[in-house]
Amino acid sequence: MYTMIRLENVTKSYGEGDNSFSALKNITLDFNCEEVTLITGTSGSGKSTLLNIISTLESPTSGDVFYDNQNISYLNSDELAEIRSQNIGFVFQQFHLLPNRTAHENILIPLLHQRVNFDKEKRGLEVLESVGLKDKANAFPSQLSGGQQQRVAIARALATNPDWILADEPTGNLDSVNGQKIYELLFKIKKERGCGLIIITHDPSLVAKTDRVIELKDGMLRQDLLKGR
């Protein structure tokens, strides 16, 4: 299990020459799997870019990323995909469920090309049960409410038993009641499974419930509040 992710002097730029834009500027941070971390900031502050770097979806323009003591900055795309598929569970604002697949089939997608030592069909039902939707296994996304679709998306993120869950505005498409239920579920999963949890959010009510708040502004670290340290 990877218990620590560290970024050292990470910069991420897009474009070239006069059209170059730096989304992240010399970010140095570490993330501990024991903590629930919020990433906040205004639109365009670099939050999603930071999450993409943490998750290996994107590589930094400069700087290094470590998973525990392994520098993954120089791995090729296949090696990064392997780390990502086995260790990272994603939850997005958009549910990204395939409309022509049932809830159970959507959950199995991350496992399709993986060799595992467990029954994939059974795992799919287990994680559906863990989010309270085992009775919706054969339902299609169009037959589910927004809150239920996000629960399926969370179950899909859990299918590989990841070390880390990364959630990018996971309640952005939900009303406040269902949004709070999703956050409660994520906190419950983190406590039960011991996985790292990093959430991008604009919801100020979550600050009191988490261990750490990181605020970005214009691609730079504005605040890093570690509670209890």
UniProtKB/TrEMBL annotation:
Gene3D superfamilies recorded: P-loop containing nucleotide triphosphate hydrolases (3.40.50.300)
Entry keyword annotation includes Mitochondrion: no
ABC transporter domain span: 5-226
GO cellular component, one term: plasma membrane
Alphabetized GO MF terms: ATP binding; ATP hydrolysis activity; transmembrane transporter activity
InterPro entries to which the protein is assigned, alphabetical: AAA+_ATPase, ABC_transporter-like_ATP-bd, ABC_transporter-like_CS, ABC_transpr_LolD-like, MacB-like_ATP-bd, P-loop_NTPase
Chain segments annotated as coiled-coil in the UniProt record: none
Keywords, sorted A to Z: ATP-binding, Nucleotide-binding, Transport
Family designation: Belongs to the ABC transporter superfamily.
Name recorded for this polypeptide: ABC transporter ATP-binding protein
Organism annotation: Siminovitchia terrae (Bacillus terrae)
UniProt lineage: Bacteria, Bacillati, Bacillota, Bacilli, Bacillales
